[in-house]
Amino acid sequence: MKKLICTFGLFVGLVSSAAFASSGGGLPFHADVDLTDKASLQRGAKLFMNYCSGCHQMQYQRYERTFNDLGIPLDAGLENLIFTKNTKVGAHIKNAMPEKSAAKWFGATPPDLTLESRLRGADWIYSYLKSFYVDPSRPFGVNNTVFKDVGMPHVLQELQGVPHKEEHFEEQLIDGELQRVSLGERIVVDGSGELSEDEYDRAALDITNFMVYVGEPMILERQSLGWKALLYCFIFFVLAVLLKKEFWKDVK
Question: Residues at the annotated binding site for heme c?
Fold first, then answer.
């Protein structure tokens, strides 16, 4: 029984470690994703459709599934979240941009983002949205510390403001003397955006939350069933061990 419990605990630990590793390390920001927060998911859907869907598709996700899962009324969804003509609510989330034209304008066709959260992780998406900065050498005038030489404009700049990358210094006492020490570069926003810094952080998190949901719409149900399955296996193993002992008691 003791060995059984240890084995089960090791298995759960390995599963948890794998989940932690997949979240992505070494990124500047952590996304505190909450897929039970319907208000955040609705805001994220609105922001994505208004600022991202003009170039990026989610061709493996349907509008109707999104509206139903996020509690968005059909009329509100049709009016505020579908921008392509003659698109039915049961259609996949696509845009009207021709792929050849997109490749010509951006240098490459903008990727489909349905599975982006599963490919890169929530922390990556959140950090990416917060890491644009002005770079006159780039075609669209911006670069990104998470995705070097990014080939797209900062579409959320009107919300965030104009971000600049600056080196951050701090005075530290070294060998009895105050010295100016570099703490590395950080992004500073000029305050011209429609949102405050905290509001923009929330907007970036809302988009991230929405993209994580789209990456696996059944994730909450899957996780719930997963723990139930583990509990069932544990109970079954305990009963199997007890039954084995009962059978072998007579043999011995």
Answer: 52, 55-56
